[in-house]
């Protein structure tokens, strides 16, 4: 269904095998194709799926993950991984609820500042010492949970967003029946796509993921770009948490456990290679929406418990990654 | 930028010492500290409790050490524990041994899946095992019908509670497994092949080593050990609780391996170090609890220790 798309920019003038072109298309737009297919099937099977209310619900539930996955996509394209986003999400929410008593601006700025600093610290450690991103952000996952317990009196205090706070409007308000967080997530995606595709920073992100040594030899500031990328991921995770707290009206400490897995799954399903150097924001968006649709369909079936959702997501992840590996092999075999 | 070789030597030797023996020294220091400043710490009962609590972590970490030795990682161990726990009550009607066997088989199947994805499909270990981390616990909950099931089988309960000459079964099993794994790593062909593959996979391939077979065996071993830990955790808990058993165990296991001085870049497996790493984290937690330090402090300290340990254990460039 995507035959009309243009071939990639580096389209060679020599003859391109059909199998290779199909493989390239599938890799780029596979998530979109499956998403469209899933939506069509779900609309036919479940009459209540294709209603406006239901789809708006899927959108708002996915919006927070979209913001987190956006940052994760940048990190993964540099060839790294950020396991701390789930904890950052919870931290952002608690800080937002805590600071909301001083107004909406502190409610948004405090989580951004704290999560940004932690993200930057992780990035600097990764960039300067060469430690594996996996282990540094794993320590971040633990450490930030500890910090979270610390500022909530070992989890006994729950901060509430004041009832008259403008923060609540931000989380709960709607425009044309769709919640503000959905618009915010989409705007961030557009900005992210521009940042990734149209700026020097974005090109450097691709270059580093393609090969850190080569990027360094080309004179790119590898350490700075990496640090900035983890800063970005921290900022977005914290912001998503703040947005979620604005919707819930409170900062819940136990949120975000396992969120890093959802974000990574979404990015990978969206066609971004975990080896780095390739990926897209639009694919990530499709990946998140696909996970949202799967969850919604499982809820629609009703007899299935939510446990099935993780089984389906996990199985789906395997299929996608295996197919991707196969496709990139087809493309390389020439 | 000129560095004379003598300075390098002086700098590297202590670093090397810290890397090789730091974890044992840290365990010793913690024990001495507790002997001096913590009431009732060096009592037999308390020490036994500490060992019983650390045993499942040690068992999982042994498998993890092997996987990390191949330059991989197994994120699915916690979910495999849950899966094993969920399988047990299904077959407990046939007796103790069939139930345990089926649980271990489930672990082996999980390991086979992980290993095949890594060896044949060529996926990165993080992704391959991430899928099972996500799906495994869901599957366990589906298998168990989302319920906690009490265990009434006397043999299984005995496994968690009884001891041989004062040594609890759990501790005995963990110790025996550590010795076996140590022997396998250092004294068998498989062990040498594993280390060679972790050190340089393409070189190992070119040298004609059975890379795929070794990788698959390693992930199967990790799966079976995780399943065994799940069985033991179920016995300790006296219930099969797939939503709780093994939660975040992958983190504890990786931490134990890394703190024990095994580099994440593969090519080296430190079995005794891994055991000491698990012990160190356990003692640290116990010490903090006994001195009324909060959970938050404990977690943040753990995070710092992980970073410091990996920093010390990182591959040094040959100069």
Structure characterization notes:
The complex is a heterodimer of chains A (334) and B (319). Chain A is mainly alpha-helical and 334 residues long. Chain A contains 13 helices and two strands. Chain A has a two-stranded antiparallel ribbon with strand order 1-2. In chain A, a hairpin with a 2-residue loop joins β1 and β2 (178-179). Mean pLDDT of chain A is 81; it is low at 1-9. Chain B is mostly helical and 319 residues long. Chain B has a single domain, classed as Orthogonal Bundle (ABC transporter involved in vitamin B12 uptake, BtuC). Chain B contains 13 helices and four strands. Chain B has helices at 5-37, 44-69, 77-91, 96-121, 125-143, 154-161, 169-187, 189-199, 201-206, 211-237, 249-259, 271-290, 295-313, and strands spanning 149-150, 163-164, 167-168, 239-240. In chain B, the strands form two sheets. Chain B has a two-stranded antiparallel sheet. In chain B, strands 2-3 form a two-stranded antiparallel ribbon. The longest helix of chain B is centred in the N-terminal third of the chain and has 33 residues, at 5-37. Chain B is globular. Chain B starts with a helix and ends in a 6-residue tail after the last helix. The chains are: A mainly alpha (334), B mainly alpha (319).
Question: Briefly, what CATH class of chain A?
Answer: Mainly Alpha
Span of the ends, CA to CA of chain A = 25 Å
Which regions of chain B contain 5 or more consecutive residues with pLDDT less than 50? 1-8
CATH architecture of chain B: Orthogonal Bundle
Percent of sequence in beta strands of chain A: under 5%
Helix content of chain A: over 70%
What is the string of SSEs of chain A from the N terminus onward? Answer: HHHHHHEEHHHHHHH
Outline the secondary-structure elements.
The complex is a heterodimer of chains A (334) and B (319).
Chain A: H1 18-45, H2 52-77, H3 85-99, H4 104-129, H5 133-151, H6 166-172, E1 174-175, E2 178-179, H7 180-198, H8 200-210, H9 212-217, H10 222-248, H11 259-269, H12 281-301, H13 307-332
Antiparallel strand pairs in A: 1-2
Helix pairs in contact in A: 1-12, 1-13, 2-7, 2-8, 2-10, 2-11, 2-12, 3-4, 3-5, 3-10, 4-5, 4-10, 6-10, 7-8, 8-10, 11-12, 12-13
Chain B: H1 5-37, H2 44-69, H3 77-91, H4 96-121, H5 125-143, E1 149-150, H6 154-161, E2 163-164, E3 167-168, H7 169-187, H8 189-199, H9 201-206, H10 211-237, E4 239-240, H11 249-259, H12 271-290, H13 295-313
Antiparallel strand pairs in B: 1-4, 2-3
Helix pairs in contact in B: 1-12, 2-7, 2-10, 2-11, 2-12, 3-4, 3-5, 3-10, 4-5, 4-10, 6-10, 7-8, 8-10, 11-12, 12-13
């Amino acid at each position: 269904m995507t035959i009309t798309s243009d071939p990639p920019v580096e389209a060679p003038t020599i003859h391109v095998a059909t199998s290779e072109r199909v493989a390239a298309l599938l890799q780029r737009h596979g998530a979109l194709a499956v998403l469209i297919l899933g939506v069509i099937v779900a609309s036919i099977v479940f009459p209540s799926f294709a209603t406006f209310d239901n789809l708006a619900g899927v959108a708002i539930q996915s919006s927070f993950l979209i913001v987190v996955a956006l940052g994760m996509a940048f990190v993964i394209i540099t060839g790294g991984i950020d396991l701390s986003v789930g904890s950052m999400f919870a931290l952002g929410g608690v800080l937002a609820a805590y600071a909301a008593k001083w107004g909406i601006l502190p409610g948004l700025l405090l989580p951004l500042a704290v999560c940004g600093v932690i993200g930057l610290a992780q990035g600097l450690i990764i960039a300067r010492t060469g430690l594996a991103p996996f282990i540094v952000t794993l320590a971040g996952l633990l450490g930030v949970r500890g910090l979270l317990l610390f500022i909530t009196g070992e989890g006994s205090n729950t901060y509430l967003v004041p009832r008259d706070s403008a923060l609540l409007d931000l989380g709960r308000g709607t425009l044309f029946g769709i919640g503000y967080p959905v618009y915010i997530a989409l705007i961030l995606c557009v900005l992210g796509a521009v940042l990734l595709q149209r700026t020097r920073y974005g090109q450097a992100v691709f270059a580093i993921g393609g090969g850190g040594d080569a990027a360094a030899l080309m004179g790119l500031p590898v350490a700075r770009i990496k640090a900035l990328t983890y800063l970005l991921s921290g900022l977005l995770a914290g912001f998503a948490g703040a947005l979620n707290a604005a919707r819930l009206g409170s900062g819940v400490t136990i949120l975000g456990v396992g969120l890093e897995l959802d974000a990574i799954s979404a990015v990978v399903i969206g066609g971004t290679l975990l080896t780095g150097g390739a990926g897209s924001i639009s694919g990530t968006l499709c990946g998140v929406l696909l996970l949202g649709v799967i969850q919604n369909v499982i809820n629609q079936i009703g007899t299935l418990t939510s446990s099935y959702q993780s089984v389906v997501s996990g199985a789906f992840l395997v299929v996608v990654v295996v197919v991707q590996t196969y496709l990139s092999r087809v493309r390389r075999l020439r | 930028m000129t560095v004379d070789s003598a300075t390098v030597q002086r700098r590297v030797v202590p670093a090397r010492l810290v890397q090789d023996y730091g974890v044992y020294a840290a365990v010793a220091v913690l024990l001495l500290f507790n002997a001096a400043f913590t009431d009732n710490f060096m009592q037999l009962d308390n020490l036994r409790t500490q060992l019983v609590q650390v045993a499942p972590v040690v068992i999982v970490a042994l498998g993890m050490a092997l996987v990390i030795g191949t330059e991989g990682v197994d994120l699915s161990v916690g979910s495999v524990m849950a899966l094993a726990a969920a399988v047990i009550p299904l077959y407990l009607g046939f007796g103790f041994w069939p139930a345990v066997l089926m649980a271990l088989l489930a672990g082996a199947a999980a390991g086979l899946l992980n290993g095949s994805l890594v060896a044949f499909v060529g996926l990165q270990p993080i992704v391959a095992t991430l899928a099972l981390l996500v799906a495994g616990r869901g599957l366990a909950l589906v298998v168990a019908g989302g319920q906690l099931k009490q265990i009434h089988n006397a043999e299984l309960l005995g496994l968690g509670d009884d001891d041989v000459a004062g040594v609890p079964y759990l501790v005995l099993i963990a110790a025996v497994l550590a010795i076996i794994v140590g022997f396998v790593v250092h004294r068998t062909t498989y062990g040498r092949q594993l280390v060679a593959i972790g050190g340089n996979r393409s070189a190992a391939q070119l040298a004609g080593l059975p890379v795929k077979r070794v990788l698959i065996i390693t992930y199967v071993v990790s799966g079976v050990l995780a399943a065994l830990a799940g069985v033991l955790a179920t016995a300790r808990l006296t219930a099969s609780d797939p939503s709780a058993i093994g939660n975040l165990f992958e983190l504890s296991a990786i931490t134990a391996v890394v703190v024990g001085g095994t580099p994440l870049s593969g090519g080296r497996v430190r079995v005794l170090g891994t055991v000491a790493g698990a012990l160190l984290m356990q003692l640290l937690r116990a010490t903090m609890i006994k001195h009324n330090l909060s959970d938050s402090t404990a977690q943040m300290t753990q995070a710092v220790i992980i970073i410091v340990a990996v920093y010390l254990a990182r591959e040094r460039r040959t100069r």
